[in-house]
Amino acid sequence: MELTRENSRAMIYYDLRSGLTQKQCVDRMISAFGDEASSKTTIYRWFAEFQRGRVKLSDDPRQGRPKTAVTQENVDAVRKLIEEDRHVTYREIQATLDIGMSQIQIILHEQLGVKKLFSRWIPHSLYEEQKAARVTWCVRTLEIFHAGSSNAIYNIVSGDESWIYAYEPETKNQSRVWVFENELKPTKIVRSRSVAKKWWPRLSPKPAMLRLFLLRDKERLMQNGMLTFVCHRSFLNSVKRTATAASSSITTMRVLTPHTEQKSF
Question: What GO molecular functions are on record for this protein (predicted)?
Answer without folding.
Answer: nucleic acid binding
